[in-house]
Specification:
- By secondary structure, this protein is mostly helical.
- The protein has a single domain, classed as Growth Hormone, Chain: A, CATH 1.20.1250.
- Helices cover 80% and strands 1% of the residues.
- The chain is built from 20 helices and two strands.
Length: 452
């Protein structure tokens, strides 16, 4: 049990760092805009800041391709180490980025380069981590194990919100715009060495042999040919699922504080507290969804989550139009996060079950990050441009309802209709974890440590 817990924690620590950096950028976007960008009005600066936030999403598919292939060829462990290093480099560049008043346009260039590095890291993180968590768990607990990937997103958001609430309590607006917004990124930078140590120390999951007919998939372009050929239906279904997997957290979770401030007139501090409390529901709900996926099957949980996300957020956010006191904001934030958790908690198992082990990390990474690059990273910028809503319906609710359509179509595809998701992944020949050189080296190191 302790070994399994350590494996889960070491795999998720990079995801925690990724979502923490993404969350604090969105939370502090107005302050970053005031420091790094030059414009005639606050809205123009905020729009530029959010567009640079979305720039990281553009790099995600490239990171998915390069690091996904690396994970399928060299092992999940080395790939997870690489993503941690890239995220740390990008975060360090943000910490050291000089203000516009000191460096002019170069400060914007540095911020863009940092977001690209973070995007490359984030693109490769999801595939390797989701594949690793699903493969290392014993049958009957794969959904719960994989759900920790999304639970750490909630923990990251809680950490970011706690830092934001603390800073806005003790610093005024000018101090926040001048230097206070850099503090959360310094904290994120401190997480990097912890992640590296944990991932280097983590034992690999027991390496098993890959079926002979699938060994050719380990050779670079052969992975892409296999995905575009015999696994094309799975790739399309995974992309449809990933549209909602990407859109819902960004629109209903990450964007919530900005929505509360711009549409409702809430103070930054009050919106951060509501965001913090809401993410408690995200953590608990994601773990509960993973357990439900083990008992009922990932597809059933995903269908229920997609339908509820299409219908309920409009009514829940409509309440805020009439009452937006701190208690109501916290309750609505918790409800929205709970809905998101039901879907995203089961999504890692659902998408991992679509692909055989030799192409799993690449398949997950490509489908998820292709969807995120369009529907996720730029969601805050699109929602800020849309304003409060359309015909009385909150813009984030409309955005997520539209994203639920391709998700439901993907879940109805033949790739999801088979038994692959209902049968524990370890019982299928195609689901056996790849016996890669990187994993073998990690396993041999572990054996030497324990005197085997």
């Amino acid at each position: 049990m302790r070994r399994s817990g350590f494996l889960i924690f070491s795999a998720c620590v990079g995801n925690l760092l990724e979502w923490y950096d993404f969350a604090v950028y969105a939370l502090f976007a107005p302050y970053i805009a005031a420091s790094i960008f030059r414009a005639t009005d606050d809205f123009s600066r905020l729009a530029q800041s959010l567009l640079v936030f979305g720039l990281g999403a553009v790099a995600r598919p490239l990171g998915a391709l390069l690091i996904g292939l690396y994970a399928d060829r060299r092992g999940r462990g080395p790939a997870l180490l690489l993503t941690c290093l890239l995220m740390g480099a990008g975060t360090g560049m943000i910490v050291l980025d000089p203000p516009y008043a000191a460096a002019g346009r170069m400060s914007i260039v540095i911020l863009c380069a940092a977001r690209i590095l973070q995007g490359l890291s984030a693109g490769g993180e999801i595939g390797g981590a989701a594949a690793f968590l699903a493969e290392q768990a014993r049958p009957g607990r794969r959904g719960l194990s994989a759900s920790f990937l999304q639970a750490t997103m909630g923990l990251s958001n809680m950490l970011g919100a706690a830092v934001a609430a603390t800073l806005t309590t003790f610093l005024d607006h000018d101090q926040m715009a001048h230097w206070g917004w850099r503090v959360p990124f310094c904290i994120g930078l401190a997480i990097v060495p912890v992640g590296l140590v944990l991932r280097r120390a983590a034992p690999a999951a027991p390496p098993l042999s890959v079926p002979r007919q699938d060994r050719a998939h380990h050779h670079g372009l052969a992975v892409l040919r296999a995905l575009a050929g015999r696994h094309r239906g799975a790739l399309a279904a995974a992309f449809g699922l990933s549209v909602l997997w990407a859109a819902a957290p960004y629109a209903l979770v990450i964007f919530f504080p900005l929505y509360a401030q711009t549409a409702l007139g809430a103070s930054p501090h009050a919106s951060y507290v509501a965001y913090l409390l809401g993410n408690v529901a995200l953590v608990l709900g994601a773990l509960a969804a993973g357990r439900l996926a083990d008992r009922l099957g990932a597809r059933r949980v995903l269908v229920a989550g997609a339908i509820l996300l299409a219908v309920l957020p409009a009514a829940m956010m409509g309440v805020l139009g009439h009452r937006h006191d701190p208690a109501t904001m916290a309750a609505v934030a918790a409800g929205l996060c709970g809905l998101v958790a039901l879907f995203v908690g089961a999504a890692p198992l659902g998408i991992a079950g679509l692909f055989p082990a030799p192409v799993r990390a690449t398949g997950i990474a490509l489908s998820y990050n292709a969807a995120t690059s369009v529907f996720g990273g730029f969601a805050p910028a699109v929602l800020a441009a849309l304003g409060t809503g359309i015909h009385g319906i909150a813009a984030p609710a409309l955005y997520v309802a539209a994203a639920a359509i391709p998700a439901l179509l993907g879940l109805a595809a033949p790739a999801f209709a088979g038994a692959g998701l209902e049968i524990p992944m370890g019982h299928a020949a195609e689901s056996i974890p790849a016996h890669t050189p990187g994993d073998e080296r990690m396993a041999m190191t572990t054996q030497r440590r324990h005197g085997a």
